[in-house]
Design a protein that fits this description.
The structure holds 2 protein chains of 2 kinds.
Chain A lengths: L2 E12 L2 E12 L3 E5 L6 H8 L7 E6 L2 E2 L5 H7 L1 E3 L12 H9 L7 H5 L3 H20 L15 H14 L4 E5 L7 H16 L4 E5 L3 H7 L2 E6 L2 E6 L1 H6 L1 H7 L5
Parallel strand pairs in A: 3-8, 3-9, 6-7, 7-8
Antiparallel strand pairs in A: 1-2, 1-4, 4-5, 9-10
Chain B lengths: L2 H23 L3 H26 L7 H23 L3 H24 L7 H21 L2 E5 L3 E6 L17 H20 L1 H11 L1 H6 L4 H27 L9 H14 L4 H20 L4 E2 H23 L5 H27 L2 H5 L1 E2 L5 H15 L12 H8 L4 H6 L1
Antiparallel strand pairs in B: 1-2, 3-4
Classes of the chains: A alpha/beta, B mainly alpha.
The structure holds adenosine-5'-triphosphate (ATP) and magnesium ion.
Chain lengths: 255, 411
């Protein structure tokens, strides 16, 4: 079976700091894959490499066997990788619905000219995207706040909206950066169900970063552990939990 | 879409333009000119709003595109209108197109560096671009050569530091206002579609837009090109209205005035930009007409009144925790109280000979008014008068019918 995403020796340096060092792993279609590690381990930087925010200093990143090193982020998104941000980056002044419509914009087929003249192609495309966005908001339980300014949402809903917006690009691979951060136990429980639903019903492959061990161990089937940019463990949750290297890396932190 | 409503609006818009023309023909030439310039400023402010307010690219050199439109078409008309044998309005339309194309090519040139630059840095580039355009015109004619060795061509004479004059006069007020209406309609249409959301997303968060697959590069360049095209078309209209244009007509302060209009009106709001353009253009003109000198005492009284109003309004905004209606009442009370104080002070202060005898013309206050209104708005409503709101009939209804709290919560 060929991997959806594969990192081969991905490395990035910021001056003297090697934030991600020779990281190699494969994600297969339908995986629910976890990426964990202590603070500053290089997890978010990994996402930034995969999504084209940074170009790797060395190593290769393949998406469906195509090399995507150094492509522009919007190109990579168009190929089928979407992400959420750890430090929520919604379009704050816009409504929840508008945020999700923008996620769908890359599938928009009407020309700019028809938008400027407000002609039927642009009108129907816009309402099609709005309908699709509403459907996604139903799935993520945000339909009732569709017309709310996204900045006015409570924290947990902002995180869900990040997911809805990424889903609107209809990605094959979904990258979630600490989706449960700042949520209460109930919200986390709902989120875990939603993540499973996205994988099972929508058939997405998911890579997620999370600090909450209970959450990660509960839903991920395979996990990669980073520490100081290096990959220190790989395997199913049961193996990761008992790995001495992982325990050492997390020593001093509550596991 | 409702084509009937659409047809009616288009007819109404064109009718409105002819109405303006008919009404202004009843006035003298000077008032007519003001009505024309007001229309041009609406176009300039609304088109800059597309770049600054909607797409979030901080451009402060909008007058350069206006200038490119004016000089290109002024020069073309001097050279070719006589021989073309075309009727005035048709030629003018052609010139608007030419001005728009030239300016939007220039917009492309400025838009490209904007891909890498943000905020202040982009502002400096656009400011520099404005100066470059002006200096090119001031130094015309000149030879374009390879280190003086190989001459490519001679840049045409655009009047240098003096006026480019004897531009054939084609004065079509309705066309000036039609351009403003079209500019407003285009921006409004854009914002009603998903395309418009993509423009807004660039303003809101570039990194997130890229991650959502939005082609940020393309949108920035497009915004610059459309915005400058409208400024260029406005320039064409100006050149043929004034028949004589000077580099100083398009100096840096014009760019700043247009920017002030956008910021005051509410960055991103088309309605705000258009209304601020008319207000800020009309205010100094009204003052200029008022030949009666302003005495130092009156000026001081007004300044004190304005400061008092701002301080009071800010107090009601920040310290007073009443209901929304009470707050609004507080704002009105602040303004009324300050006005009364200012009125009283006028007499008191003018009684002091030193203040009474020092008088100056109202028109000198032009820049003071711009600066003052900018400071006031930044203090009491930093998001601009209209913020990101737009005029619409539903919005008007909502504002006029102030709902009680319980009902507002229920809906
Ligand atoms: N653009 C950058 N320039 C310099 N250093 C950077 C840059 N981006 C990340 N780093 C550094 O790389 C290291 C890894 O950061 P990263 O954000 O990937 O950690 P993380 O694993 O996501 O941590 P956390 O759990 O706190 O989110 C950190 O030391 C960080 O300071
Ligand atoms: Mg991180």
């Amino acid at each position: 079976m060929s991997a959806v995403l594969s990192l081969k020796g991905a490395t990035i340096r910021f001056g003297g700091l090697v934030a991600v060092n020779d990281v190699t792993f494969d994600i297969e279609k339908g995986d629910l894959f976890g990426l964990i590690g202590p603070n500053g381990a290089g997890k978010t930087t990994c996402f930034n490499l995969i999504t084209g925010v940074y170009r790797p200093t060395s190593g290769e990143i393949f998406f469906n066997e195509k090399l995507i090193n150094g492509l522009a982020p919007n190109r990579i998104c168009a190929m089928g990788i979407a992400r959420t941000f750890q430090n929520i980056r919604l379009f704050q002044a816009l409504t929840v619905l508008e945020n999700v419509v923008i996620g769908g914009f890359l599938r928009h087929k009407a020309s700019l000219a028809s938008a400027l003249a407000y002609l039927p192609p642009a009108i129907t495309e816009t309402s099609r995207l709005e309908r699709e966005a509403m459907d996604l908001l139903e799935v993520l339980d945000l339909a009732d706040v569709a017309q709310t300014r996204s900045a006015d949402l409570p924290y947990g809903k902002q995180r869900r909206l990040e997911i809805a917006r990424a889903m609107a690009t209809q990605p094959e691979l979904l990258l979630l950066d600490e989706p449960a951060a700042g949520m209460n136990p109930n919200e986390k429980e709902d989120l875990a169900q939603t993540v499973r639903l996205i994988r099972d019903q929508f058939g997405k492959t998911i890579l997620l970063i999370e600090h909450d061990m209970k959450f990660v161990m509960g839903i991920c089937e395979k996990i990669v552990v980073l520490d100081h940019g290096e990959e220190i463990a790989y395997g199913p949750p049961s193996a990761i939990r008992n790995d001495p290297k992982v325990i050492e890396a997390y020593l001093g932190e509550a596991v | 879409m409702n084509w009937g409503v659409r047809a009616v609006s288009i007819v109404a818009a064109v009718g409105f333009c002819f109405l303006i023309q008919t009404v202004s023909l009843g006035f003298g030439a000077d008032i007519q000119r003001l009505i024309a310039l007001a229309g041009l400023y609406v176009t300039l402010a609304v088109s800059l709003n597309l770049i600054n307010g909607i797409t979030g690219q901080f451009s402060i050199g909008h007058a350069a595109f206006y200038m490119i439109g004016a000089y290109t078409t002024g020069y073309l008309s001097i050279q070719f209108l006589k021989n073309s044998g075309m009727p005035g309005p048709v030629w003018l339309l052609l010139m608007m197109l030419a001005g728009a194309i030239m300016a939007s090519l220039a917009g492309l040139v400025v838009g490209l560096p904007s891909l890498r630059l943000k905020g202040d840095y982009l502002a400096i580039v656009t400011l520099g671009f404005g100066e470059i355009v002006r200096i090119i015109v001031v130094n015309s004619p000149f030879d374009v050569s390879f280190f003086g060795v190989f001459k490519f061509f001679t840049f045409p004479n655009l009047g240098g530091a003096y006026a480019l004059d004897k531009i054939p006069a084609i004065r079509e007020l309705w066309l000036i206002w039609l351009l403003a209406v079209v500019c407003i309609a285009v921006c409004r249409n854009l914002l009603k579609t998903a395309h418009g959301l993509a423009f807004l997303s660039v303003r809101e968060d570039e990194v997130a837009s890229l991650a959502m697959g939005v082609n940020v590069t393309r949108i920035k360049v497009t915004a610059f090109m459309i915005g400058s095209a409208f400024a260029g078309a406005a320039g064409a209209l100006l050149a043929h209205y004034e028949t004589s244009i000077l580099p100083s007509t398009f100096a840096m302060d014009v760019s700043f005035i247009i920017l002030t209009m956008v910021v005051l009106g509410g960055t991103g709001s088309i309605t705000g930009s258009a209304l601020a353009a008319i207000t800020l253009f009309a205010l100094p003109e009204v003052l200029r007409r008022n030949k009666e000198p302003v005495t130092g005492g009156t000026f001081l009284a007004i300044v004190i009144g304005v400061i008092a109003a701002v301080v009071l309004i800010r107090w009601f905004q920040n310290e007073y925790h009443g209901s929304k209606n009470k707050k609004t009442a507080g704002y009105f009370a602040s303004v009324a109280a300050s006005a009364i104080v200012a009125f009283g002070l006028t007499f008191a202060l003018n009684a002091i000979p030193a203040l009474h005898d020092k008088a100056f013309e109202g028109s000198k206050l032009r820049m003071v008014i711009f600066a003052g209104s900018l400071i006031i708005v930044m203090l009491i409503r930093p998001e601009g008068v209209f913020a990101h709101h737009e005029f619409s009939w539903t919005w008007l209804k909502k504002v006029l019918r102030i709902k009680p709290k319980s009902e507002a919560l229920a809906t």
